[in-house]
Design a protein that fits this description.
Blueprint: H1 4-13, E1 18-21, H2 29-36, E2 40-44, H3 49-57, E3 61-65, E4 78-84, H4 93-103, E5 104-114, H5 120-138, H6 149-156, E6 160-168, E7 173-174, H7 176-179, H8 183-189, H9 193-207, E8 212-213, E9 216-224
Parallel strand pairs: 1-2, 1-4, 2-3, 4-5
Antiparallel strand pairs: 5-9, 6-9, 7-8
Helix pairs in contact: 5-9, 8-9
Bound molecules: S-adenosylmethionine.
Length: about 230
């Protein structure tokens, strides 16, 4: 997630340690953070241990299996707490935001995909996402519609001051097959695989080879109201 706002936040805080909330396998956000600061504590509710071990051996990262809704750290533990694309995987994401603010002594940095239906490709992507999310909901995989800028701002209101926002737009095409690459894996977990594969074929026919699109990414750097 190389990003000017992130780099500025890290430079301004001269960080000892950053908390990476929802680090996944550690191969993306944690690795990027390690290039920019001295120590990273990375948490995820679903540990991807193989990659964690690989990264931990060669770096200053500590990994913990932990729920963002109940961070096991005292208040004000980290100058910067980041969440790279994690909140839209949490049904009660404002509660995770509250936890991030609690354990941060200064700043939080949110990095979320956002929707903007400005083109036919974006509209197809939104529709395709809806199908995928319905399947994922059925098999119990936590993944929800992208948050909006307004919803995030409203959740921060009164508790944090926005220091900087950055919107990275992308209209890069994504093929139908690439977008739905893992659909079959999720469909296999449901009790009605054929039903979902039929739905997919109907959508494929409707889109007739037209591409989908990469997401835009919104980055928000906010400081705790009490910290400055
Ligand atoms: C889109 S992935 C982002 C992974 C990583 N940050 C990256 O840059 O590749 C979202 C991650 O959030 C994690 N997640 C979902 N709900 C969570 C929760 N309640 N607490 C902690 N992590 C959670 C998922 O397990 C997943 O690894």
């Amino acid at each position: 997630m190389p990003n000017i706002t992130l780099e500025r936040a890290l430079q301004s805080l001269k960080l000892a340690a950053v908390l990476d909330v929802g680090c996944g396998c550690g191969g993306h956000s944690t690795r990027t953070l390690l290039e920019l600061c001295d120590r990273v504590v990375a948490i995820d509710v679903a540990p991807r241990l193989a990659r964690w071990h690989e990264i931990a051996q060669s770096s200053k990262a500590r990994f913990c299996c932990m729920d963002a809704l109940a961070l096991g750290f005292p208040c004000d533990s980290f100058p910067l707490v980041v969440e790279p694309a994690t909140l839209h995987h949490i049904a009660h994401w404002p509660d995770a935001l509250t936890e991030m603010l609690r354990v941060s002594s200064d700043s939080i940095l949110l990095q979320e995909p956002v929707d903007d239906l400005r083109s036919a490709a974006k509209q197809r992507t939104f529709e395709a996402q809806g199908l995928f999310l319905s399947l994922q909901a059925e098999v119990g995989f936590a993944h929800y519609r992208h948050l909006t800028r307004d919803a995030i701002f409203s959740a921060l209101e009164g508790r944090a001051v926005i220091a900087e926002t950055q919107l990275e737009t992308s209209d890069a095409p994504v093929s139908f097959d690439e977008f739905f690459e893992s659909f079959d894996v999720f469909a296999s977990q449901s009790g009605r695989k054929e039903y979902w594969l039929d739905k997919l074929q109907i959508m494929r026919a409707k889109f007739a080879g037209a591409p989908l699109c990469e997401d835009d990414t919104l980055t928000i750097w906010a400081t705790k109201r009490t910290s400055r």
